[in-house]
Amino acid sequence: FLLFSGAFIFLLFYFTLSYNNRPTNEDVFFIYIVKDKSLFQFIHWFYNTWCGRWVSSSYYYFILSATRNYQTIHIIYFIYHLITFLILLYSVNSIIVSCLRKFFQSEIDTITNLSFTLLFIAGFYYSTFQNMEVWWWIFASVDALQGIVFLLLIVALLLKDKKSVLHFITICLCALYLGGSYEVNALIIVALTALYICIYLRKNKKVVWNFHTKRIIITFCFFVCGAVISVLSPGNIKRGHTYIRDHLEQSTSYSANTGIAITPEQFLQKKYLIALSLAACFVLLGILVQKKTQIKYSISSFKRFLFLVSIPIFVSILITYLFQLLFLHYQ
After folding, report:
1. Which residues make beta-bridge pairs with 261?
2. Following DSSP, what letter does each residue of 186-214 receive, concatenated?
3. Any idea what DSSP says for residue 324?
4. Which residue has the higher pLDDT, 82 or 300?
5. Residues 259, 265, 268, 269: what is their CA dihedral angle, to the nearest 10 degrees?
């Protein structure tokens, strides 16, 4: 009951903010830009003058073009946040169910599963470093947040391992979105995919051309196509000459938009304590599953699991740092 109550409170919090969200920064500027341009004109202008995030900019165009005036913009923003939440809800719920069935041969009731799904989303929200920008600033959200949302959807559909045309098309479109949106996410996925291939080849010695393997390869091809088009954008170079401040020095010590110095205390905000508390709730899920499953895991299995979980985290941090070091040193 307490878990469900906590999940329900976050639900109210999220949708209250969703309905009351308003445009800011670039959102205000681009609202007027899209009124005079078609989708292809906007993508062409954005691609050649700002950056190569051509797929996410298309999604951004549809959101802003649906906005007729400022009196109704909160409704469009609410629909956007609702769609984001529903995709997250489906993806996280499917991943939890698939993992419990695949690794523990266990299931939990619908209410409990829904509660932990909502708690995971809440933990994800509160653990986001700049959550006000990533979640509520649409210009940033369609890149940084939606990339993760669609990545979770890909993982959820792959774990289902269902031979469905709709699933396959959805996976390919999500992969195309990942490749054609946020560059850092794209690089992380390339690195993790390459690492997965190396582990797979070392374990199996040769490639087994089954449905699962072919689907992953085709998905990766869609991702690479989106990334190549994004990287070749002339706007990437022009954007590099737009900023004045040096992001290499400011990215970890200054706010991204204001240039105001961030104190060490701000890295230890209360929201991270909330995120840790929500993460601790999953210990209860482990206890619940342990009571229902006959499978016993050794300490070595647990260490192996921690090692596998830590790899994506380490790779993500490393690539983010290297990307900043190599590319974000604007003149």
Report:
1. 254
2. HHHHHHHHHHHHHHHHHHHSS---SHHHH
3. H
4. 82
5. -70
